[in-house]
């Protein structure tokens, strides 16, 4: 029986760049993953990740993508990790945060054009994916709601979908253009955050109902797991296949 050489999975290309943002009033580090066989004359679907440092380090995103592309039937894709400072994360990612509007404008109006001017990523909403964990899942959904002509795919790992998100979904109307995958851990009924302790399971179940009412194309998973990268990392390979299967 042939066993794939897993050492190949660690031979990956991750570039680091910095973008200067007018909307944020500061520079923001980016991580750019280029797939095996990367060729500038080709074009690639693109995965845009909040919490870039954590997605790449704790989520092992580059390794998982490389393994999936080489041996798991994943379509080669470019992945972008957008780093965030812990001190401003909630302010930028939470829909009621004072920096949230500026962050979403930075993402859509500065960062996406920056990437598209430098890398051969595809430019349709169907081939852009916004991904995030916890509040990163929240801001990814709100990014799609604010810029549906840019993003129609959202990957949410235990999204923090509370009152303001639910209010906006109730008012959103037709969501048939939106494709979203939601993962939630059954052990996430009392998650302590800097804003308090929340029942993420109940919040995700209610958000699922609202998305379904709007006609969104939804895949939803509840599995035993805690609000930790150890849980999300294990589930990422299968979730990536939903969006990036050949």
Automatic annotation (TrEMBL):
User: Which domain of life does the UniProt lineage start with?
Assistant: Bacteria
Tell me which Pfam families the record gives. Esterase
The protein's name is Enterochelin esterase
Q: Which organism is it from?
A: Gordoniibacillus kamchatkensis
Instruction: Specify the taxonomic lineage.
Output: Bacteria, Bacillati, Bacillota, Bacilli, Bacillales
């Amino acid at each position: 029986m042939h066993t794939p050489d897993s050492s190949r999975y660690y031979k990956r290309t991750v570039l680091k760049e910095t973008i200067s943002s007018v909307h944020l009033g500061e520079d923001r580090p980016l991580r750019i993953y280029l797939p095996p066989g990367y060729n500038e004359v080709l074009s690639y679907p693109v995965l845009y990740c909040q919490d870039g440092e954590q997605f790449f380090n704790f989520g092992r995103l580059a390794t998982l993508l490389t393994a999936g592309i080489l041996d798991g039937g994943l379509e080669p894709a470019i992945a972008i990790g957008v780093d965030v400072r812990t001190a401003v994360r909630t302010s930028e990612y939470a829909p009621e945060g004072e920096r949230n509007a500026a962050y979403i404008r930075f993402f859509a109006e500065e960062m996406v054009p920056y990437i598209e001017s430098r890398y051969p990523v595809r430019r349709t909403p169907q081939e852009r994916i916004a991904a995030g964990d916890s509040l990163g899942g929240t801001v990814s959904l709100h990014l799609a709601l604010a810029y549906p002509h840019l993003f129609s795919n959202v990957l949410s790992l235990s999204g923090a979908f509370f009152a303001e998100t639910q209010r906006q979904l109730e008012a959103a109307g037709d969501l048939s253009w939106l494709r979203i995958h939601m993962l939630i851990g059954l052990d996430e009924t009392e998650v302590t955050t800097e804003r308090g302790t929340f029942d993420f399971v109940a919040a995700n179940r209610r958000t699922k109902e609202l998305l379904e009412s709007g006609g969104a194309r939804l895949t939803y998973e509840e599995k035993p797991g805690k609000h930790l990268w150890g849980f999300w990392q294990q589930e990422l390979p299968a979730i990536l296949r939903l969006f990036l299967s050949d």
